[in-house]
Every structure is written in structure tokens, then in C-alpha cells.
Design a protein that fits this description.
The chain has 356 residues and is α/β, with parallel strands linked by helices. Helix content is 41%, strand content 21%. Strand 1, helix 2 and strand 2 form a beta-alpha-beta unit.
């Protein structure tokens, strides 16, 4: 398929093949590189999750791995690091995030013997019209479904009170996290009689994914307004919010953070086995990176395609283990998740009547 979203049935089949494949040959000849976005490699979020998937594949298949962090955030900065990886012999290059869209658009033509994986974006020439060549694959996620499940879990565990959302930049993937979370809260209120409230002033896009201090300040302001839990889809900005929650809990306040992209429970630990992270809305970017490396080694790289990882394919969701959720809540959330996978629940990827 060229430049089209895969149907769910086809996607599931592809994922199963990629993850179940064995007997890979020629692994030693492949060099896998990554260029980070504006965050750090240990941002506890998007970059880190992608890199962890690359490292897992590197260890399992004995392939060489390397990442480069650009000096800036322009297209030229990204192309420079892509070129540096290419010149060093890296022929599978993975880039996480929409900032790489125009850079990959140009790189896929310039380096036709290399393969490119663009996570959470599609290559285009500045006009948002996706153009994927046979050496490029785009991986998208149904973020709204992950956030929906996290929203239901949050509402069930808290039962009542205020919650908030802090996003990085107001881009479609981050907005979908916001909208999905709101729908999860609404669903729980309507179906489980919870009484969770989200106010417009408690939905904020900070404008970056790197400003840790701003994240802490925004979280402090929300907690001061009585917010009990904040869903953060903001990279390092979210780390700032986690830091603020840790400080509050240590002083006796009962507040929570809902993590994003990966299981952030360990990032929220403030004392042995205790964390301020209630649960996390996960996009399994590690799985996506790992799967594409495995596909390349098998000679099954799905170039020219846009793959969408969703709840049905287990590409999004919350962690398998959620120490801060009661067994009763986990059981209810599991049932909601199954209904979502079965199509009994529909989560929209647009604002509609939701708060901004």
C-alpha cells in the first residue's frame, strides 16, 4: 500500500508477523541510527521510548546503534544529523516526531539506498501533503485511545474532584491526547457515576517539549487551584510537573500525575515503591522502532506505507502493571479496554464539543 493508512485487519497481521518473526540473517551488516527531537534522549517520554526500542533490537539482533542530537530545531539541523549518520554507514534511520516531516521528505530522495522511519509524522514538502517513497515508512498512533483509557482509570481511582491537562506544543498528536483524556473522563462520569471535572483554565499547552521549569510552574498553579491529578503530554515539561507533584506529596499533599508515551511510574518515585504517577497513556514507540528494525532485517520493510498503531493492535494503552490503581479499578478498566478493542466504544480523534 502506498501513502494510505492501513486497515486495522491488515495492520494487525503486519504487527503479528513483525513481532513473531525469527531466524533473522545478516544482522551484523545493519547500522541503525536515530536523530532526537528537541528533547533529550532521557526525556522519560518520546525520545527515550524510541531509543529503548532501538536498543532492545540492537541487543537482540546484534546490530550497531547510535543516536545524534541536533544543535538546533530547524530542518537544516535535522538534515545535518541525518547526513552525519548516513556518512557513517547508517542505513536505517529513525526519527521521532513531526518536526522531521520536511527533513525526511528531502532525505528519502537524497539517500535512496537508506531506509527511514518517521514516528508520529508523515513526510511532506511544507504543504502537509504526505509523500512516502519506497524507502520510508510513517508510524502513527491512536493517542486518543490511550488517553481515553487513562482518563477512565483516573476517574475511577479518584472518584471525584478536579483534573487538568498540560500539553507541550498544540500539535495534532498532543491535542488528541487531550481530547481522548476528556472523553475518558466523560465516559466514566456517565457510566460509573464518577464526579470528575475539567475546567478550561486547567487545560494548557506550554508551547515546548523542553522547558522543565515551566512544567513545574504550571503544575504548581493547577495544584494551587485544587487540581488532584494532571495528565502531562509534554516531554521534559511533563518532567517538571512530576517534580512538582513529588514535592507536594512529600509535604503531605495528595496529588497525582498521569504519564505519557511510556510507563512513567519509575520517574515519579519519591520513596521506595511509591510514585506520584497514577498510570500512563502509552504510545508504544519502543515497539514501533523495534518492529521496523526487525522488518528491515527480514527484508520486509513496509516502505511507502503509513502504519497506525491503535488499541486493537495493542499499540496504545496503559501499562500492564499499575500499582496505584486498585484491583477493582483495574478490572473495570480492562473491561472498558476490551470494549474499545471490539469497537463497542468509539473514541474520536477530534475536538467536537470538548474543551479546547
Amino acid at each position: 500500500m502506498f501513502n494510505k493508512k492501513m486497515k486495522l485487519g491488515t495492520l494487525c497481521a503486519v504487527v503479528v508477523i513483525l513481532l513473531a518473526a525469527t531466524g533473522i540473517n545478516g544482522a551484523a551488516t545493519l547500522k541503525v541510527g536515530m536523530v532526537t527531537n528537541s528533547g533529550t534522549i532521557d526525556d522519560k517520554s518520546f525520545n527515550q521510548g524510541t531509543w529503548e526500542g532501538i536498543l532492545r533490537a540492537g541487543k537482540e539482533f546484534k546490530v550497531e546503534t547510535k543516536y545524534l542530537k541536533p544543535d538546533g530545531t530547524t530542518e537544516a539541523d535535522y538534515i545535518k544529523e541525518i547526513s552525519n549518520l548516513y556518512d557513517a554507514g547508517f542505513r536505517l534511520i529513525i526519527c521521532p516526531g513531526f518536526p522531521f516531516e520536511t527533513a525526511i521528505f528531502k532525505a528519502q530522495d537524497k539517500y535512496q539506498d537508506a531506509k527511514f522511519v518517521l514516528i508520529d509524522g508523515t513526510p511532506h514538502n511544507g504543504d502537509s501533503k504526505a509523500v512516502l517513497k519506497k524507502n520510508t515508512v510513517s508510524i502513527l498512533f491512536s493517542e486518543h485511545e490511550a488517553a481515553f483509557i487513562a482518563g477512565v482509570a483516573t476517574a475511577l481511582q479518584l472518584k471525584e474532584g478536579l483534573v487538568g491537562f498540560i500539553g507541550g506544543m498544540a500539535i495534532p498528536p498532543v491535542q488528541r491526547f487531550n481530547w481522548g483524556f476528556q472523553q475518558g473522563i466523560i465516559y466514566a462520569n456517565e457510566n460509573f457515576k464518577t464526579k470528575i471535572v475539567i475546567k478550561p483554565e486547567n487545560i494548557i499547552y506550554q508551547g515546548t517539549f523542553s522547558n522543565v521549569a515551566a512544567g513545574q510552574q504550571l503544575a504548581a498553579q493547577m495544584f494551587d487551584r485544587g487540581v488532584k491529578a494532571i495528565f502531562c503530554a509534554a516531554g521534559d515539561v511533563g518532567i517538571g510537573s512530576i517534580n512538582e507533584a513529588k514535592s507536594r506529596v512529600k509535604s503531605g499533599q495528595n496529588v497525582w500525575i498521569i504519564g505519557v508515551d511510556r510507563d512513567q511510574f519509575s520517574d515519579g518515585i519519591y520513596e521506595t515503591n511509591k510514585s506520584v504517577v497514577l498510570t500512563s497513556a502509552m504510545k508504544r514507540v519502543d515497539q514501533a522502532a523495534y518492529a521496523m528494525i526487525k522488518a528491515q532485517l527480514k527484508g520486509e520493510f513496509p516502505g511507502g506505507e503509513i502504519l497506525t498503531f491503535n488499541a486493537k493492535s495493542d499499540g496504545v494503552g496503559i501499562p500492564d502493571k499499575n500499582p496505584n490503581l486498585s484491583k477493582e479499578v483495574q478490572a473495570k478498566v480492562a473491561k472498558v479496554s476490551e470494549d474499545l478493542k471490539a469497537g463497542k466504544i468509539v473514541v474520536y480523534d477530534e475536538q467536537r464539543q470538548l474543551i479546547k
